[in-house]
Each structure stands twice: as structure tokens, then as C-alpha cells.
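Quick one: C-alpha cells for this chain, please?
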Amino acid sequence: MVGKVVRGGDRSRKLSASALGALAIVAGLAAGVGGLATRAHAEDAKPTDAVTAGRELFNNWSCSACHTLTDAGSSGAVGPSLDNPNLTREAIINRVQMGGGPMPSFAGQISDADIGKLADYIVAVNHKGAAVAAAPSAAPSKQ
């Protein structure tokens, strides 16, 4: 990740209560609550607001300059590929906050909430159709 790219007024998007309710329903179905969803159904579902928000953060913070992540359409080769189902939410959060190797720390630059959203996004796109234990995500917070 390099630096933040700011585009117009994209910095202060907010989800309405109905969008958050829809997100909760989608998250419940993706997790298979009540046996209502199957892996095939979750894989065929449209991207959730959490995935969309995470993808936006990934691109706005220029993570694609160093990292490959198919869902984001990135092919950076400086850092490791993030197309890795073994990545955990905790490992991603730790690396973004602490840095390591050529990656700088982004603590204090990206809010903890947005770092969590980035981690949720990366884990979610690597586990399409599987339940992902993560805190609920919303749109990127205001910087």
C-alpha cells in the first residue's frame, strides 16, 4: 500500500439504516443461519456492501500498487499476493497496523475501523461461500 488517493467527495459515504439491515440479512444468509443458505447460493450472490466498501478502501489507499488481489483487479508484485485463503483477519490487521518487510505501518493513517474493513474484505473474497467470522462492516469511515 502506498498512499491515499482522494477522489472528489467519496470520503464521506454513509449507509442508510435499510442498507445496514440488508447487510445483516446477507451476512446471516452467507453464514448459513437456519440452514437457509448453501455454499453455491453464497457464491452466486452479488457483492455485499462490506465487500464493496472494502474494495473501495483497497483501491483508495493504493494497496494495488504493491499487492495482487483478483477481486480488486490488482496485480502489484512488490508485496505478497493477497489471493490466499490462508490469510486471517488478525494477520492482515497486524500487518497493516505494524508493517513488516517493505510494507510500512499504516497505524494512525488508516482508522482502526477501516483497517478492519480491509481485512474483512480480503478474507471474504478469499472465502467466497464460506462463513467468515468478522465484525460487521459498513462504508469507509471519514478520514
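The chain has a mean pLDDT of 72.
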